[in-house]
TrEMBL record:
It comes from Actinophytocola xinjiangensis. This is protein acetyllysine N-acetyltransferase. GO terms for molecular function: histone deacetylase activity, NAD-dependent; metal ion binding; NAD+ binding. Its EC number is 2.3.1.286. Residues 1-250 form the Deacetylase sirtuin-type domain. PROSITE patterns: SIRTUIN (PS50305). SUPFAM superfamilies: DHS-like NAD/FAD-binding domain. Keywords: Metal-binding, NAD, Transferase, Zinc. It is an enzyme of class 2 (transferase). InterPro entries: DHS-like_NAD/FAD-binding_dom (IPR029035), NAD-dep_sirtuin_deacylases (IPR050134), Sirtuin (IPR003000), Sirtuin_cat_small_dom_sf (IPR026591), Ssirtuin_cat_dom (IPR026590).
Amino acid sequence: EPDTVADAARALAGASRVAVLSGAGISTESGIPDFRGPNGLWTRDPSSERLSSLEAYRSDPDVRLRSWQARLTHPVWTALPNDGHRALVALERAGRLAAILTQNIDGLHQKAGSDPERVVELHGSMFDTVCLGCADRRPMSAALERVRAGEADPPCLDCGGILKSATISFGQALDLAVLLAAKEVAQSCEVMLVVGSSLGVQPAAGLVGLAARAGAAVVICNAGQTPYDHLATAIVREPLGEVLPALVRA
Ligand code: NAD
């Protein structure tokens, strides 16, 4: 389907307020596996989805031990942005970007050079910890140092509560101010450009419907199908590291 990038480019042409909704698929080419793609973490081991719930983390010390061990060697610490992230920086520099609404927690949009003020982290960030008791927030690096020094499940230094990465787990509400900011962008954009998301997680996926109802064109760049494909004026299935540079050039 050689035309699909051209169709997507036509939908974007002339738009000065493009909202990007990004998901794990934009970072797979940086070596961070997604959840539901063909090589996704949950596709390979469906039982791991349970371990991503807030309830499991809070109630099961074993889940926390395993989470801290996984954080020690997590690919996000060393991952580098790819051509897909960089194309979105070019879109911003061309004056076309309203904001990047990202479900990713890997910080790669900011690392690529996107203005941090235009990156809305719907699901938080791996680079901070938050206390489930007193909400104290600190750099993840400090907690990881404590784990390396022998604390298997380091407690909050202020209140002794349970520390977790400052990311949204299943069963955990999004930060309301962050969600409202994202909704405002969705309702006022001219184009909603979805990149690398299966659109299977609410309320993030609902931002696409919100944008469409407010009159925005929807363009979906994603290898797999999504429940919102019927709303799209253009769909591109090729790898994002190639598609996004071509789209922004066009
Ligand atoms: P997902 O795993 O549900 O879907 C990713 C989609 O991207 C899939 O449909 C897949 O076909 C597509 N895809 C993968 N690589 C691609 C490529 N190179 N080119 C084009 N398409 C590609 O991801 P999601 O929708 O973001 O939802 C998963 C949840 O997990 C999110 O809430 C997110 O917070 C979290 N998560 C984040 C990261 C990260 O920060 N990088 C990684 C894994 C999961």
